[in-house]
Amino acid sequence: MRQEPVADEHWVDPAPFDPEEREGPLTAEQMRFSTASQWQLVWWRFRRHRLAMASLWFLALLYASTLVTEFLAPYGPHTRHAQFINAPPQRLQLFHEGRFVGPFVYGYGFRLDRATLRREYAPDPAKIQPLRFFCRGEPYRLLGLVPGDLHLVCPAERGTLFLLGTDRLGRDVLSRILYGARVSLTVGLVGIAVSFVLGIVLGGISGYYGGWTDNVVQRSIEVIRSFPTIPLWLSLSAAMPVTWDPLWVYFGITIILGLIDWTGLARAVRSKILSLREEEFAQAARLMGARPARIIGRHLVPSFTSHLIASATLSIPGMILGETALSFLGLGVRAPMVSWGVLLNEAQNVNVVALYPWLLFPVVPVVLVVLAFNFLGDGLRDAADPYAGR
Prior knowledge:
The chain is of the alpha+beta class. The protein folds into two domains: 90-161, no CATH class; 175-384, MetI-like (MetI-like fold). 54% of the residues lie in helices and 13% in strands. The protein has a three-stranded antiparallel sheet, with no helix packed on it. Strands 4-5 form a two-stranded antiparallel sheet. α9 (246-276) runs antiparallel to α12. It is globular and about 95 Å long. The chain starts with 18 loop residues before the first helix and ends in a 6-residue tail after the last helix.
């Protein structure tokens, strides 16, 4: 006798579904991340990159110092001390013969070697010169506008303070490095602004329209990138009239660096626009009658702004190195303006470097700033990646 199959019973719970009861309530940390904006997520990922955070603070302090350079520098950039030509650095001291004195330097003992006609300096323990802080010193105009004479640190009365030595004209190397930072660091910012405008506009047009417009822009990029960078810089810099004011030369250098550096950014923007222009939000904006400029500027470019910021931080070191190289070769910023490249220009002679190695100190901030920007760019690039840390 065949037995009929018994249907399985199916039980349905009539109680309403409560996800928090089944899976547990969301923690405060989960709620925080689930409601965070894109920029908050980028910032939280960036903070985990300790080297990038340290670089960010270092660069922030460095750029902030350029606003108060006159206050920080003990001397002016062109102040000469004829009695201390090519003087070596004075060591900062705290103790004298086992007794705490406070921050001070020993004065110079000086003699002229008649055999080599060289000035020879040696610290004289009998000349104790305490440092003065928040003191009145050499008058200046802050940012060329506000008059003042307050300095963070000053030498003792009738004393000297050359922590990094002096150059062939008796000018304080430390003060000139601080003044040079204002030019060398702002060149990178102004140059990247020019580069970004060109890169975003031309890259956006190339990626959005395609066709012959894309071909013209891309072929132009290939022509520019085919020229060797250094000879192209030199030829464009040499074309600037020598009669120009140093300020105009400064702006000319920044424009030259921006006009050459935009090609890589334009290609990156083009690739992003090509991948995003067919997305639903771009199509919706187009169907609603938005113009191409609005679609590119208000919808497409903001969707990868974090990648643009990371790209900018990686491009600024190239701008700084470009200005330093041109000024080092005598074709960049010219005296009386001061930049790190101008300071290194004075150390071209091997004999000078062998006799006065402290003239190479301006290379130290160049290396530190380039490394800091690279670490910062790496951190931003990782933070901008939506799959970072997964």
